[in-house]
Design goal:
Blueprint (H helix, E strand, L loop, with lengths): L1 H24 L5 E11 L11 H4 L3 E2 L10 E2 L4 E12 L4 E17 L4 E19 L6 E22 L4 H6 L5 E21 L4 E14 L5 E2 L3 E2 L6 E2 L2 E11 L1
Parallel strand pairs: 2-3
Antiparallel strand pairs: 1-4, 1-13, 4-5, 5-6, 6-7, 7-8, 8-9, 8-10, 9-12, 9-13, 10-11
Length: about 250
């Protein structure tokens, strides 16, 4: 009899504890969605992996100190990533969400023969976020969390004459060149930050963290189809800051 009494008492205590926890969280358990803007710092293209871009066009260089004239800089050591994030509070202290974003930078040049050159470097990310927050009764919450997901990095290059007719474009010319390389990558982004509820219907979140993203050797494909077996490893690690303005659902 004592054993069953202990079981009943323990069960009531556990149920009471859970009820108290979620009763406390009922007014604040909610979701939010909104645009997110990230700024990646020190995101540099690997000089060894992309050194032959200079053969594609002498007007492109990766390292600013390496050229005698003033060509276009392919890599400016930073990138703005625009995206969208949504999250929901599953307990008073934990939130689960999803994030997706994409950033790019472009470089253009034109040689003496009036041939236009373009290089487009694109970085895409999507993943699940998990955050622990302080759940203070004020509108301000301190938080720590991480994103776990996948990404894709791609580089597209093309050249074309300044004045091309329709027939030139359809038939192809000797001065027209193009290629696209891409690779899927894992993405991990540990971060710290804060959330602030501006009102009952909207708020803002600011975080700072580390983008861990590496394209493995041999993972690059030409036009998303042909595997380039001797492609090198390309590191895309960078410190990042992200700001989100969200609407509370």
């Amino acid at each position: 009899m004592k054993r069953w009494l202990h079981i009943i008492i323990y069960s009531l205590l556990i149920m009471g504890s859970l009820k108290a926890q979620f009763a406390e969280g009922q007014p604040v358990l909610r979701g939010a969605v909104g645009p997110a803007f990230s700024y990646l710092i020190s995101l540099e293209l690997d000089e060894d992996a992309f050194e032959f871009l200079g053969n594609f066009s002498s007007d492109f260089e990766i390292v600013e100190a390496s050229f005698p004239k003033n060509p276009s800089i392919i890599n400016n050591n930073s990138m703005v990533v625009t995206g969208f994030e949504g999250f929901g509070e599953v307990t008073p202290h934990w939130t689960i969400g999803m994030y997706a974003g994409q950033g790019e930078y472009l470089a253009f040049a034109q040689d003496a023969a009036l041939v236009n050159y373009m290089i487009n470097f694109t970085l895409s990310q999507v993943g699940v976020t998990a955050e622990f927050n302080t759940h203070v009764r004020s509108r301000l919450k301190l938080l720590g969390g991480s994103l776990f997901g996948i990404g894709q990095v791609s580089i597209t290059a093309s050249s074309s004459p300044e004045n091309e007719s329709w027939n030139d474009i359809i038939s192809g010319t000797n001065t027209r060149q193009a290629f696209e390389l891409s690779s899927w990558t894992p993405v991990i982004q540990p971060y710290l930050g804060l959330r602030f509820d501006i009102s009952r219907s909207m708020g803002a979140k600011a975080i700072a963290g580390w983008n861990e993203q590496v394209a493995a050797a041999g993972s690059w494909k030409l036009y998303h189809n042909k595997v380039i077996t001797d492609s090198p490893e390309v590191q895309l690690r960078a410190l990042f800051f992200r700001f989100q303005l969200y609407v509370i659902l």
